[in-house]
């Protein structure tokens, strides 16, 4: 275990035993640059094994599917054993499905499907089984305006699949659900989402037409705000998931100039109202000649600004969802070291965001995204202390 | 009108008035070859205008979304006027969305989205408004085992969108629904589906792992069995839609050899049990040395064989769907001149198909797929006599 960890930490390239292909563990190189979203750079399988789970580090794929599971509640010892079994089953299933020999004849090789995944642990399970997770892992508080459906929220285990297409996700979700069921986990909820196809390095739009994810951290900032803390959790992170129903027609009915004031960015090019290009830092202090703020006091981008949080940034990899004509919106997915980063932002947004009339938070989940697995390892080995 | 029809029939290339790009009306060339399914052959927009609607003639795209609408029931004269308005609105909306200048900033140009569509008329509306549709257009009869949900079935108008990705479909579905609503139509149901990405000329698999669509008609057979009849309806066809829930886990639990006997084809390569390659014609008379049929009496492929119908073939362009862990299956979509072709096959299948324990027909619809629109025309001009 000590040797494996050391190798992982070094980001070394390991050969996975006799006959197995060499896999790159140094996924740090693929970490959160601005250009996390976009088309895959090459037609190759994305390695499952690595220091960090590929569902966070790889380029954002155009389709996602989330699965939440609950574990039975018997004795802590029995439940820990069940969790070990479920994690072993998920590791095997996900590694095989992502490989160039996915076994299921309905799946093409990894190069075509570009499957990535992540597995996370919910805070309630972590507390109940006294797992070694970051101390900051905790459920989110309630926010003003929340209308959360518990049947679509939370869960002991969270699996997020991402791939080039929905077909792959449906087939792999079936394999994941079967493996989890056989190991003793019960399905809680599932949710699928998608992105527009975007060129590598460009930011995908959401159903409001806004670019979503512009202010993502660069690699240096991600090491400070997304991954960690140092030690056993250096290669872990926390996922905050919110299912946000959007009143697309209502927002579209606003005049374009009004929509841009609500967002604080121009929909056309994504530039902040204080700037000229998408990646210009929004200047929340810039004023108009009449003394009013260029980015209004209730603009979404102002209230979400990292300037209020000492520069803290989340790695946002959100998807749109479409569950019928009256239920469309955003699957907000953001990775951060400490879920309190989200709580601070969401408290500001819930209180004043000019977008609020067009948004309803309908589901919520938090999960500790485990460090990656080595080719001879299992997800979650860090949990048992 | 006479001139327009003549040009359409000639498959001529027309320029769509000043400034518009020339569009190819000779979509007959793209008609139902065996290779209807697969990846788009080129990164170009698929023309909306043409003698036949591109939602039938173009290569099958990997994602689909169906929308069904009902018209109000007032007087026949008023409802005919409403229908004219809805068809005009749909023509405008679909032509713009499929073009290289789709207006909505959330849509990329047609070359990226590869949007195609078809608009059809339900038999009840056609009868009520005495529209000029093929005489064979009629609702399907009930079949043994049907468990149809009326809230997901039928409708006065059917729109099927197909595209390279789900994002495009969600955005265009929103535009279509808004246009239909503004013109007086009410939403009835929607349904989305998808395919595995397959190479051009190969047959996509369904969730059972079976290749689906192998026996599609070639171009000559399609002119006889899919399009027509001759006259005003030569460029129309009838869509039969069935939402078929599949017990994927139950079927997968059968041994591989048993699954192949149920289908009458080998899942591995799609070859009939009587042959060696996917496109070998199934020999329903071939016998084993012991006198039994090589393709069993209850095998799916035998009961669906065109040999029982004087060679009649449907153009099948089915999709898989995934509406949750317990509701997955096939959106059977087939085009034919006469819906009685489907009725004959389905009567045989409903009575004896060895697949029946794993299938539930949960929704159904029939629609007359209108001829295409010329650049200066509107879908449905043939309806008014």
Mean pLDDT of chain A: 88
How many helices of chain A does DSSP assign? 11
What structural category do the secondary elements of chain A indicate? alpha+beta
- From the structure provided, what is the oligomeric state, counting identical versus distinct chains? homodimer
Radius of gyration of chain A: 21 Å
> Which range does the strand content of chain A fall in?
15-25%
Element order of chain A: H for helix, E for strand: HEEHEHHEHEHEHEHHHEEEHE
The span between the termini of chain A is: 12 Å
Record field, number of beta strands of chain A = 11
Biggest β-sheet description of chain A = 9 strands, antiparallel
Biggest contact? A-B, 37 and 37 residues
Domain Dyp-type peroxidase C-terminal (chains A, B): 203-372
InterPro entries (chains A, B): Dimeric_a/b-barrel, Dyp_perox_C, Dyp_perox_N, Dyp_peroxidase, TAT_signal
Protein name (chains A, B): Dyp-type peroxidase
Keywords (chains A, B): Heme, Iron, Metal-binding, Oxidoreductase, Peroxidase, Signal
Structure write-up:
- Chains A, B: Belongs to the DyP-type peroxidase family.
- Chains A, B: GO terms for molecular function: heme binding; metal ion binding; peroxidase activity.
- Two copies of one chain form a homodimer.
- By secondary structure, chain A is α+β, with helices and mostly antiparallel strands.
- Chain A has two domains: about 50-205 and about 215-240 and about 370-385, no CATH class; about 250-365, no CATH class.
- Chain A contains eleven helices and eleven strands.
- In chain A, strands 3, 4, 5, 6, 7, 8, 9, 10 and 11 form a nine-stranded antiparallel sheet that branches.
- In chain A, helix 3 (about 75-100) runs antiparallel to helix 6.
- The longest helix of chain A is centred in the first third of the chain and has 23 residues, at about 75-100.
- Chain A starts with a helix and ends in a 16-residue tail after the last strand.
- The interface between A and B is large, with 37 and 37 residues.
